[in-house]
Specification:
The structure holds 2 protein chains of 2 kinds. Chain A folds into 3 domains: about 80 residues; about 100 residues, no CATH class; about 150 residues, 2-Layer Sandwich (Heat Shock Protein 90), CATH 3.30.565. In chain A, helix 2 runs antiparallel to helix 3. Chain A is an alpha+beta fold. In chain A, strand 8 and strand 9 form a beta hairpin. Chain A has a 5-stranded mixed beta sheet with strand order 6-8-9-11-10. A 4-stranded antiparallel beta sheet of chain A has the order 2-1-4-3, covered by helices on one side. Chain A is built from 11 helices and 11 strands. By secondary structure, chain B is α/β, with parallel strands linked by helices. Chain B has 2 domains: about 120 residues, Response regulator (Rossmann fold, 3-Layer(aba) Sandwich), CATH 3.40.50; about 100 residues, Winged helix-like DNA-binding domain superfamily/Winged helix DNA-binding domain (Arc Repressor Mutant, subunit A, Orthogonal Bundle), CATH 1.10.10.10. Chain B contains 8 helices and 12 strands. A 5-stranded parallel beta sheet of chain B has the order 2-1-3-4-5, with helices on both faces. Chain B is globular, with a radius of gyration of 18 Å. Chain B starts with a strand and ends with a strand. The chains are: A alpha+beta, B alpha/beta. At the A-B interface, helix 6 of A face helix 1 of B.
């Protein structure tokens, strides 16, 4: 059921006004013309009276009007020169009057409350019957024209704006052109403006991503070229071959991470989900990370109470936890412990990962989740895609991920996942 | 020995490039920030600077601007392949040439040699002088004077102007300019010559009739107006 809207009321009122006015004006004109026109009896009366006066004199005329019963309001009145009523009814406002010199030489005034004349006059003035129709047509045309203009004018702007947006001019804004108007069309133009803004953000982030990707691919390729150049100079340098190998592996890793990023950017419906115990998953990741941490002289500890089974994409959630925990191991102080805590609730699971590293500048707490954002002195550590992948994976499952600095230094990343299925 | 200053934040790359350059007979020093690059480039100890455009914080373009405000030391830019804005901006600011990344180190060495040949031409006697109008060029010393004042030119600009001055009053094709002054063949969509010429035009100023001293002849090339 569609709620009657502003535009609806505008349309309704305008049409209603147009039709009603047409009807009323027509009716009024018809009534007036009927009121003024006589009828055959009255015409005959007037004709006879005139004839009696001119043929037989004033007395004959007086007798006719005296004898004849007339309507109180419509009829004929005979007046003398001084304006006194001789016979017939008193006519205050005469629609028609004529001075007549009677057969006996008197001058009298004959007044009527209608146009005498009978059939021949009506035939002459025929077109006057079309007046109401003509007026109605013009009125309705004026209203319709205004209405059409009122509706079409903003749509023309809107259409132009949409075309501009389609051509890539995302700065186009329609709202300012609408003035003080407020209705659905203005709401639509606001939506159009919002869409243009959104598109601008999307295109820009796309371009930035492309730029970052090409830059990330370029660096290992340039190093590879340099290593190959050195090999050309001295074919015996085996370590250069190892370098070429390392760089090509790096490119391979980048491409794989990019593909994962593209996958988690898709629609949530597109993931294949399965029943997974997330606590079990965390335990196995912690165990793997333990190995890396030992090399640094660090440890990873997991605190969890009971299991948490949920319908998720096991692979994506695995990657998410793994990226965050490995980041923590990478940045934590040598000899320190990375704390992984899992709080199982009825409806959600909250995992917090705390390291004992230098933390992150406050301005970067949010932007660190963007693709290719990484610590400044960290060129060899990775591409800066891990946290971006983690964030998208969590969001796909309807959860949230956030980071905050600990008072003691170090960074805590909190992941909240709702229970599905 | 030609001393090369490498300015690039990729340490692994500069390590390998230094080794490569040393085996090709150059002496190479590498720094990894724009600030260090600027200081060393202005120290006068290096014959040529290889500058990466994509430096963190202080960009290569900004470093080039700072170097050019005080020195005409030859600068070769390392730009991102396909990034035309950096290329044009770099040339306009007075870079002598650019090499896109990724390229082979062999390509880099070829460009370095081409620039060095221009800077220190072999077999040109020091007393070689070219006169045309109020322009005087001493190719051996890489010095120029214009309307009685000394004219500051980058080595690439000098070579281009020298080529035009040797043929003053004649049209020199872009191909010839590219080959003889830049030491490389003209490629499609190559805007290098036009950018350098426009920079020289600005340094020469307009003629009395408000036209430029170097006229472009559409489809043919450039011509230095002879007095």
């Amino acid at each position: 059921m569609i709620k009657p809207s502003r535009l609806f009321w505008k349309l309704f009122l305008a049409f209603w006004l147009a039709t009603t006015l047409t009807f009323l004006v027509g009716l009024l004109l018809l009534t007036v013309s009927h009121e003024l026109d006589g009828n055959p009896q009255l015409d005959a009366l007037y004709g006879t009276e005139e004839k009696l006066l001119t043929t037989y004199g004033a007395d004959a005329g007086r007798q006719l009007l005296t004898v004849l019963q007339q309507d109180e309001t419509r009829g004929v009145g005979l007046y003398d020169k001084t304006g006194a009523l001789i016979a017939g009814i008193a006519i205050e406002v005469a629609v028609y009057q004529r001075e007549i010199v009677t057969a006996d030489g008197q001058s009298v005034l004959l007044r009527a409350s209608f146009f005498p004349g009978g059939p021949q006059r009506q035939a002459d003035d025929g077109p006057s019957h079309f007046t109401p129709i003509f007026v109605g047509t013009v009125m309705s045309a004026l209203f319709s024209a205004y209405l059409a203009y009122y509706l079409v004018w903003p749509l023309v702007h809107l259409r132009q704006a949409m075309r501009d947006v389609a051509r890539g001019h995302f700065e186009t804004r329609v709202k300012p052109m609408m003035g003080n108007r407020r209705d659905e069309i203005v709401d639509l133009s606001e939506d159009c403006d919002r869409m243009a803004r959104q598109l601008k953000v999307m295109v820009e982030s796309q371009q930035r991503l492309l730029h970052d990707i090409s830059h990330e691919l370029r660096s290992p390729l340039t190093r590879m070229q340099a290593a190959i150049g050195l090999l050309h100079q001295e074919p015996g340098r085996q370590e250069m071959l190892a370098r070429v190998e390392r760089e090509s592996e790096r490119i391979d890793t980048l491409i794989e991470e990019l593909l994962t990023l593209a996958r988690v950017q898709g629609r949530p419906e597109s993931i294949e989900s399965e029943c997974v115990d997330l606590i079990e998953l965390l335990a196995s990741i912690t165990e793997d990370a333990q190995f890396e941490a030992h090399i640094k002289g660090c440890a990873v500890s997991l605190t969890a109470s009971q299991g948490f089974v949920s319908q998720v994409s096991g692979e994506l959630i695995y990657r998410c936890f793994e990226n965050v925990i490995r980041n923590a191991v990478r940045y934590t102080r040598p000899g320190s412990v990375v704390q992984v805590r899992a709080d199982t609730g009825e409806a959600q699971l909250m995992v917090s990962i705390t390291d004992a590293g230098p933390g992150v500048e406050t301005v970067r707490l949010q932007s660190m989740f963007l693709p290719f954002e990484r610590g400044l002195d960290d060129a060899s550590a990775g591409f800066g895609l891990g946290l971006a992948i983690a964030q998208r994976a969590v969001q796909m499952h309807g959860g949230t991920i956030s980071a905050c600095n600990e008072a003691s230094g170090g960074l805590t990343v909190v992941i909240v996942l709702p229970r599905n299925g | 020995m030609i001393c090369v200053l490498l300015v690039d934040d990729d340490r692994e790359l500069t390590d390998m490039l230094s080794q490569y350059l040393e085996r090709e007979g150059f002496a190479a020093t590498a720094v990894h920030t724009g600030e260090e690059g600027e200081v060393l480039a202005l120290s006068g100890d290096y014959s040529i600077v290889v500058l990466d455009v994509m430096l963190p914080r202080l960009s290569g373009i900004e470093v080039l601007r700072r170097i050019r405000s005080q020195s005409q030391v030859p600068v070769l830019l390392l730009t991102a392949r396909g990034d035309n804005i950096d290329k044009i901006a770099g040339l306009e600011l007075g870079a002598d040439d650019y090499v896109p990344k990724p390229s082979s180190p062999g390509e880099l060495v070829a460009r370095l040699r081409a620039i060095m040949r221009r800077v220190a031409p072999v077999g040109k006697p020091l007393n070689d002088v070219i006169h045309t109008g109020t322009l005087t060029l001493w190719p051996g010393k890489r010095q120029a004077s214009w309307q009685g004042r000394s004219l500051e030119l980058t080595s690439t600009e000098f070579s281009l102007l020298e080529e035009l001055a040797r043929h003053a009053g004649q049209v020199v094709s872009k191909q010839d300019l590219s080959l003889n002054a830049l030491g490389r063949a003209l490629t499609r969509y190559d805007r290098r010559i036009d950018v350098h010429i426009s920079s020289i035009r600005q340094k020469l100023g307009p003629r009395d009739d408000a036209k430029a001293w170097i006229q472009s002849v559409r489809g043919l090339g450039y011509q230095l107006i002879a007095e």
